Amino acid sequence: MQTDNASSPNLDRLTADDVDRLSYPELVALVRETNRCPGGKRTINRIARLTLLDRESRVLEVGCTTGFTSIELAAISRARILGVDVIPAAVAEAERRRRALPASMAERIEFRVADLFDLLGRIEPVDLVVVGGATTFMQRKQDAVQAYQLLLRPYGFLSVTTLFYRSEPPQDIVQRVGNIIGTRIDVKLAPDWLDLFTSTGLELYHCERHELDARPPEVIDAYVRYMLMQPHLNGLCAEARAALHGRWLEAMTAFNENHRYLGYLLALLRRNPFEEQPELFLPRGTIVESSFR
Length: 293
Prior knowledge:
The structure is a single chain. By secondary structure, the protein is α/β, with parallel strands linked by helices. Helices cover 39% and strands 18% of the residues. A 7-stranded mixed beta sheet has the order 3-2-1-4-5-7-6, with helices on both faces. Helix 7 links the parallel strand 4 (126-131) and strand 5 (152-165). It is globular, with a radius of gyration of 20 Å. The protein starts with 15 loop residues before the first helix and ends in a 23-residue tail after the last strand.
């Protein structure tokens, strides 16, 4: 493990109160969690293959957090990637990881602190917009989908990997997760998300649904201990370390319980330059976004 503290300065001065005041994205940056999209590298590989990314492709990741998806896409496709996030600490951690890459790879990746809507008219349209859970945190979800579309070139793809509820979760779990991540959780089913992302006329090009499940409590405990053993956290005082352990354990325990009710979508949507007639005869089980109107 690396000990570079560029994204977590002054750890020896961090108090328990400081840890308690951190937002969840800042907490992720502090512990340097990989923060994978649902399905991890398997999902990223599917995105790269299904969108036919190559060295000529230009990709924008919205909500890059600590950089995992952007870096993995650059590694397997040789595309040029811009990752943006509104949390400076997360972008700083992503940049730390980028600097550790071979120069030939690092030069194809850029991380930037930026809001989605600030990018409109300021960057050239891209071949692929990648969005994980960032839309969940946005108040203006409909406007966000419109912005994703405007950032795509004709026939460009929007990739969405988002969690959805397979069944109605207990309200206390929803509230706990919402309090931890700092936003109100909308209990959305898969069709709710698909309706949102196709509302601006994007074509649903490909869609997969996957189920998630909880891990045993001992696995959660071991994971939390592992994360706090990272060398870059050695400078924490005992009180700050205890506060960090408590917050991380609380978050992972709540998320784990929430996973009993979750699945995730891998959806690819395409920006078509003109409206196409709907497809009539489909393979059994094909997910479509709309019927004839």
